[in-house]
């Protein structure tokens, strides 16, 4: 379809929508905002995450946040499914208590044991 034909089609479609009232539909309500819990990375999803004390989550992440780029390496590993975590980050991760893992990775329970086994080999 040529550019002129597309432009004419678009104008006819907009005029039809305006004439039938479709152009005046009420806007969709905004999506619910993320619940931000201090110290929790990433923000929580209401109803999806197990309840936890924000102070516990902060404590669990604290050793990793003290190492430059460690949290980024971990998140990149989760989202790319390639474990690319440096030695300093691995050392800090291995020192974290296993009871922290569900608080740190509530939506990816397989990740912490996988990262632990990878880091143990370094």
UniProtKB/TrEMBL annotation:
**What are its GO cellular component terms?**
extracellular region; vesicle
User: What are the residue boundaries of the Prolamin-like domain, all occurrences included?
Assistant: 59-119
Q: What InterPro entries does the entry give? A: Prolamin-like
- Tell me which domain of life the UniProt entry assigns to the organism this sequence originates from: Eukaryota
- Per the UniProt entry, the signal peptide is 1-23
* The keyword DNA-binding appears for this protein: no
Looking up Pfam families in the UniProt record yields: Prolamin_like
Is the keyword Lipoprotein assigned to this protein? no
Q: What's in the keyword line of the UniProt record?
A: Signal
Q: Which GO terms describe its biological process?
A: double fertilization forming a zygote and endosperm; regulation of double fertilization forming a zygote and endosperm; regulation of protein localization to cell surface
Q: What is this protein called?
A: Prolamin-like domain-containing protein
